[in-house]
Amino acid sequence: MDEMENLITKITREVVSRLNAQETKEVKKEIKDEIKKEEIKSKKILAVLTGGAEKVDEALKQLDILSQSNDVSIVLSKAAESIIGISKVRAKVPNAKFIENTNYESIGKILDDTNIVVVPTLTLNTAAKVASLNADNFTTILLTHAILRGLKVVMATNSLYCCVIKPETMPLGAKKKIDSIISQLKEYGVDMVDVSEINNALKKCLEGVCGTKEECIGCGKCITNNPQAVANIIDSGASRIGASSGATPIDPKIASMIDHTLLKPDATEKEIRKLCEEAAQYKFASVCVNPAYVPLAAKLLKGTGVKVCTVIGFPLGATTSTTKAIETRDAIANGADEIDMVINVGALKSGDDETVRKDIQAVVDAAKGRAIVKVILETALLTKEEKIKGCLLAKMAGADFVKTSTGFGPGGATVEDVALMRKTVGPEMGVKASGGIRTYEAAKAMIEAGATRIGASASVAIAKGTSAQTKGY
Fold this sequence. Notes:
The chain is α/β, with parallel strands linked by helices. The protein has 22 helices and 15 strands. The protein folds into 2 domains: about 45-205, Rossmann fold (3-Layer(aba) Sandwich); about 250-465, TIM Barrel (Alpha-Beta Barrel), CATH 3.20.20.
């Protein structure tokens, strides 16, 4: 225990000493430079070949093109080994690596080493099982887990109809069923394309389109899997914006990055319904509501692709870890996709690092990969050293994001805090700036400092590039 606390203290002091020597602008420049360095690295693409027999040569051609400039690994299903043949794949895609250890225990390691998944020979059987999350073999479990992890997945649709000589003669009911499978996969964030477009689809994803499309899952972790996208977003000033007031955006890309938020204690059912209607209408990434409204939001947004986010231990963070874990499980059972938890601020200020880590870990474990976990530090109450410690402890506990503020504390997000948090957690985690962000310029400044999401109560003002008169979140 003492060794861990000593390690955290040493790391914290090292980060503080380095940051104290830099101005905020230098921090922001370094962040952008690091992102640009990351973007030139090859991406790790996992190609999953199932038994689809349509346009196999074109599928292998696409993989060969990808393997020229990216790290491509290929895994074949039993059906693919029989129908396509591993020798043919090796000959057509000589630069690729082949994964032959296909036991269930290897799935986690395979996905840990993957940025993007492509399925160029998708069968109807595999598509149906993955769409229903009814995985019963290595291939379907692998693909299902990839989707649940939030990895970008691209699938070719050609082999879905390969047994149909004349698609126009297919019974209407059968066509509707296949179309519903495709629609369900799209709702999961899967790109469904023609096999000849696989390379272009992945190229767009690698070059920055990923995360701005209608069917994007909106996980907000592009800074890890797609640093070029983040660089493009920084240059254009766009971000994923959390907000509570709807309006037609000046740029549809901005709308797809908005977390539509309403957390005031006197929010009414009518206001929540309006919030959800706006989110569906403008295709916002999510709505963020108090736990009591999660079931209603989940019901209203079912099938729209809009996520449901809620808050845990909010806004003080002073409940027990057990209570926070119970709240988390209850919220997920009610339909929450994302969890914003408040840390035990008092424990952090008391130097009780282990209590803070366990508090975060309890929520992460309760989420069990079923929801993204964001850790609210309430930075206005913390010293620089405490902010760094909070970030390190959140990272150690396996959280997905660190977040500046609840919006209900003594202060909100600052550019300096966001830059500090980004520097501390590195590119592996998301950073959410929240509290007091009411203009487009303020949101852009946070993004330039390293934020990958922004929480606000002024979506109209941010989208229109005007100032808002609202206070609070």
